Amino acid sequence: MKKASAVTAIVTLVFLLVNYQVSNGCTNFLVTRGASADGSTMITYAADSHVLYGELYYQPAQDHPEGSMRDIYEWDTGKYLGQISQPRHTYSVVGNMNEFQLAIGETTFGGRKELSSQEGAIMDYGSLIYVTLQRAKTAREAIRVMTGLSEKYGYYSSGESFSIADPNEVWILEMIGKGEGEKGAVWVAVRVPDGYISGHANQARITTFPKNDPDNCVYAEDVISFAREKGWYKGSDEDFSFSDVYAPVDFGGARFCDARVWAGFNKVADGMDKYTDYAKGIIEHKDPNDFASNRLPLWIKPDKKLTVQDVMDMMRDHFEGTELDMTQDIGAGPYKLPYRWRGLTWTVDSVEYCNERAISTQQTGFSFVSQSRNWLPDPIGGILWFGVDDAYSTCYVPMYCGITEIPECFAVGNGDLLTYSETSAFWTFNFVANFTYLRYNDMIKDVQGVQKSLEDKFVTYVPVIDKAAETLYQKGETEKAREFVTQYSVNEANNMTKQWKELGQYLLVKYMDGNVKREKDGKFERTETGMPASPLFPGYPEWWYKMIVKQTGKHFEVAE
Fold first, then answer.
1. Which of 194, 199, 168 is nearest to 381 (CA)?
2. In Å, how far are 9, 99, 189, 367, 374 from 196, measured between CA atoms?
3. Whole domain around residue 497: which residue ranges?
4. Which of 15, 118, 315, 327 has the most CB atoms lying inside 10 A of its own CB?
C-alpha cells in the first residue's frame, strides 16, 4: 500500500495542529434559497476555541495513484488514528468550501457518554468534514460519503451536528457513535424546507423525523432499533426523537447551547418570546416520562428574506435586548463589556452560578458565512465570507471558492497562537478586539464603523467581480477567471488587514490612558499653536460610582 502524497500529509498535519480542541464551542445557522434575498444558500460557522489560531486552509485538487492511502489524525488532539484509501481524484477546498460550492460546518453535542468511544475507529468529525469536501459535489453526496466513511472505518468522535449546503439544498446531519464493541454510527439527516432557516449550537436538534420521505430525510437503518436494543426507547417508531434519546436536553443544553439558536432566530423572526424560559434553561415536560415539551423548533421562517449581511449579523450577538443581555448586569462593568472570562460556571457559598454563552465570544479562531449561488459557475458562485477572532468585531471578506492562492494575512504558518506576526490577520484583529474590551461601549462604535464600511464595499463590489469573472469563464478562459477572483480575494483580504492595523493605531491614540482625544471633521484637534487639545476625561457612569459607595461605605468619602 502507498502512503498519501507529501502535500496531503503536510496539509493534514497543519489541520490537526491548528484545530486542537475546536469542539464544544461552535455555532451554526443554515439558510435555504427561499429564505435568502438573492436565492443563495448559506451556512455559518464559528470555530470557538481558546487554543485555535485563525487561518484559511487550502487544498488543491489532486490526482492520486491507485492504492494511495491517507493518514487520519484526530482533529482535536492530533492522535494518529489510521489510514483510509484515497480516490483517484480529490477536489480543491478553500476553508470549509470546495470547488463545487459545497460547504460543511459543525457543532459538537456530545450525547450519551457510553457512545463517546469506539475502539479501532478511524474517522473523527473533523476528518469527516475535510475528507468529504475533497470527495463530494453535493449535499446529498456529502451525507453518503460521511456516513459511508463512518460505517467502513468506524466513527471516533462523540455526537455531532453537521451543516451541509450546496447551491440548491441545505441539510442537517446528526450522528453519534455506537460505543465500544460496535462499529460505525447511528444518524439522521433532514433537509431544511425551502424558505426556512435552521441552527444548532452544541445540542442535538433533530427530534422526530419522517420515515418514508427519502427526498427530505435519510437515516441509518438501525437508528431506532439500536436505541431499543440498549433499552433507551420503548415507544413507537413514529414518536422516536433522535435528540431526546441520544442527547437528552438538560439545563446546559438549553442555557449554554440552544439559547444561541434562540438568539439568532430572535434577530430575524417575531414570536421567539415564547421560548425565552427554555433559553434560560427551564425545561418543561407534559408528563415526567415524556420528552421536553417546550423545545425550540428545528427551523423557522424568517420575517423577511435574509441578505448575507443579515446572516453575518446573526453571528454578532450577546443576547442584546433580551433577558439574557450580557451588557446589562454588573458583570459587564462600567463600559458594558459583553464578555466574561472563563470558566462557564462558578461557585459562591456552595451555590453554582453561570456565565452566559453567547454566539459571539472572545475565543474564536475563525468564523465564516458561506454563500452558494446556483446561477453562477462553481468557481465563481461559491464565496466563503471569512473572518478571524471574535465574530462580533471581525470583518468578513469574500474568499471565492475558485481561488488558487491564500492571502498572506490568512496564510498557514504566518504566526501561531504563541508567535506574534505583524502580517497576520488573527493577531491584528486580536489586538483591536482586546484593546476595545478596555472601554467597550465607546470603542466598539469605532470598530463597527470601519467594519460596516469594509463589508458594505465588499458586498457592493462582489456583483461586479462576479460579472467580470463569469465573462472570462463563459469565453472558455477558466484559469483566467480563477486567477481573477484569486487576485481580488487576496488583495481585499490583505488590504483589509492593513486597514484594521491602522484602526488599532487610531484606537490607541484616541483612547490612551483612559482619556478620549477630541476630534473634528475626522481629525484629532490641536490648539492654535499645534499642541494636542486637552482630551476629554469621561470617568465612570453614575451607577458605577453608586456601586462603589454601596460596597465601600465611607472609605473614599472626602473629609470636610
1. 168
2. 40, 26, 16, 22, 18
3. 416-514
4. 315
